[in-house]
Amino acid sequence: MTTNEPITLARECETVEIPSGIKTVLPAGTTVRIMQFLGSGYTVTSDHGMHRIDVKDADALGITAAEAPQEPAAGDGKFSEQLVWNQLRTVYDPEIPVNIADLGLIYSCVSTPLEPGGYKVEIKMSMTAPGCGMGNVLKADVEGKVSQVPEVKEVHVEVVFDPPWGPARMSEAARLQLGFDV
Q1: Coil/strand/helix, residue 51
Q2: Are residues 63 and 92 located together in one domain of the fold?
Q3: Has residue 96 been placed in a domain?
Q4: pLDDT (tens digit, 9 = 90+) per residue, 13-28?
Q5: Is the pLDDT confidence value at 105 over 60?
Q6: Phi first, then psi: what are they for 125, rounded to 5°?
Q7: C-alpha angle 59-134-55 in degrees, rounded to nearest 5
Q8: 60-96 b/e with 16+ CB inside 10 Å = b?
Q9: Residue 42 domain-assigned (yes or no)
């Protein structure tokens, strides 16, 4: 969802500033424009800069919950690595309309069975730039999404910068979507 139509916030709303990652509150009456809606948040611009508004606050934008995205199906209720990757594909960089898996930010994803049951998932991911303030925000998004996979008991996400991320890490579909030569 994108719109250039101005929207007046119906109530004050918690946001995350982009790209700093600082939590802030936009007051009721602030005029915003939705730049994109992907994953679990709206990227908006206003006179206060660029912000991410969580889908739980869609009502502040005048959007009903029915318009909010649904979480991916949990399959048959059993753990699978495919379900982990499906969840990773629901996390988006708020400035780029491509999920973090296709963007090539996931460097490794390893699941290990736990005793007496369940799984631990360890993920190494990067950012598109080392100074990106959204690192902790995206890390928390990944932890939250992956912890929803059936039988996942532990999730550990480490943000790494070696090797540095580059556009060559993107999937072919992501390069096409962003207009890169393939």
Answers
A1: strand
A2: no
A3: yes
A4: 999 998 888 899 999 9
A5: yes
A6: -135, 160
A7: 15
A8: bbebeeeeeeeeeeeeeeebeeebbebbbbbbbbbeb
A9: yes
Residue type, 54: D
**Same domain membership, residue 97 and residue 13:** no
pTM of the model: 0.79
| Per-residue pLDDT reduced to its tens digit, 59-76 | 999 987 545 444 554 567
Length in residues, the chain: 182
Nearest to 141 by CA among 65, 63, 54, 66: 54
Q: Find out whether the peptide bond into 167 is cis, omega within 30 degrees of 0.
A: no
**Hey, CA dihedral for 180, 91, 106, 158, is it positive or negative?**
positive
Q: What's the mean pLDDT in 103-128? A: 96
- Contact between 28 and 10 under an 8 Å Cβ cutoff? The reply is yes
Give the whole-angstrom CA distance, residue 151 versus residue 42: 29
Helical pair 135-146 and 81-88, crossing angle rounded to 10 deg: 140
Domain that holds residue 44: 7-67
